[in-house]
User: Which sequence fits this backbone?
């Protein structure tokens, strides 16, 4: 079979062009793989759920009769132990769950007036 002379450079050009489009698309074009898209979606959903549950934590903190004592314990804890102190108060344990949530505790801690 006789192939035209222009076919070989045309194929090389198409392959090099496809590689360049792929490189540019993944670096500057914002393309991502399915795994990366799934990871980003899961992170966004976790963030949104935490943001939606922070008002519940704040409401539990406001309505707690022992709020003053618990706030003093949180204030006197060192900075890196405040989240654990807030988790010990039970304010980051959402209704229907058995254990406190660390992410909710951290977000609730940021919203409390310490």
Assistant:
């Amino acid at each position: 079979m006789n192939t035209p002379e222009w076919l070989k450079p045309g194929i090389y050009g198409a392959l090099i062009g496809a590689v360049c489009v792929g490189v540019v698309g993944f670096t500057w074009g914002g393309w991502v793989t399915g795994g990366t898209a799934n990871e980003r979606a899961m992170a966004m959903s976790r963030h949104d759920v935490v943001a939606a549950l922070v008002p519940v934590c704040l409401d539990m903190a406001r309505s707690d009769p022992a709020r003053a004592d618990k706030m003093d314990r949180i204030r006197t804890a060192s900075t890196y132990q405040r989240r654990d102190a807030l988790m010990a108060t039970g304010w980051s344990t959402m209704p229907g769950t058995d254990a406190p949530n660390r992410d909710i505790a951290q977000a609730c801690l940021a919203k409390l007036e310490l």
In short: The chain has two domains: 1-31, 45-111. The mean pLDDT is 93. Residues 1-31 form one domain. Residues 19 and 25 are 10 Å apart (CA to CA).
